[in-house]
Design goal:
The chain is built from 9 helices and 10 strands. It has 318 residues and is an alpha/beta fold. It is globular and about 55 Å long.
Amino acid sequence: MKIIYTKDHMLHNPEWEFFEGAKVPHAEVPGRIEVILKAIKMQKGSEIISPRNFPLKFVAKIHKKAYVDFLKQKSALLKKNALYPSNFITDTYTPVLKHTFFAAVRSVETALTGATLVQKGERVVYSLCRPPGHHAEQYMMGGYCYFNNAAIAAEYLSQFGRVAILDIDFHHGNGTQHAFYTRDDILYLSLHADPKVKYPYSSGFIEETGEGNGKGYTKNFPLPLGTGEKKYLATLRQALKLIKEFNPEFLVVSVGFDTYINDPIGGFRLTSPFYEVIGKEINVLQLPTLLIQEGGYNVQDLGKIAISFLNGFVEEKR
Ligand code: OKP
Ligand code: ZN
């Protein structure tokens, strides 16, 4: 499998976030991607590719210019300390640092490089994006996300055919949902923790199903805290059935490993071997598939979770 990776993500290195009034160590750390890369390198059969450069016009398809410019200028002005701006931001978890803009652009390029390979006929590509993207709105950073990698990649692929996005991060991908809320050529499906109790709180409810032309092309599957494998698998199968009916040209998966039983900020009960089951279920569709990394915060266990997930996409020899 082709893996898209750049060490440039490490330049974005937030130390703190503010959670319910307390200053706590930041969960979205460079080690997350480094651990996954290390585990992949220990396996045979993967090819690590650096992302190429893309013009900012691809970012501008999803994000407002004023926001893109703001993030660029803020990043450039900063020296050492992180800043929580008072504008263009949804929460207290998403600081801007000197290299945040650069790292966020490289993360988009990691997604777009994967998208071009899938468009050219690659069956499955894994883009090791960091920072993550699915909470980023057209004019706002939030939830550790700055630019919406999955939305930008899906928008790119939609030039060539219909796209389904399956978001299996523990958190609802509010930014991705909103990017395509009125469109019928991009289906957005998300399995996530009940937003009544978990981030992003304000969206991801079952009643949100799209608007205008997009009516029926968004579907949310909120799940209670403590959800285990049996219920998760049954819900995943419902989502996959809808993707099959939609019959897209491409599949983009927002991959979060924060559904893991020992994730420090999650709340589901999936074990590492179960990620192979998830991978296999998705792979049954046999669609040109772009895997985009989102969350997953148990740094120690991310390697084995990722390998388990990728094993689901390995074709059995017959
Ligand atoms: C980003 B992604 C815990 C606060 C957590 C922010 C969650 C962002 C998740 N200290 N709140 O979807 O994995
Ligand atoms: Zn998440």
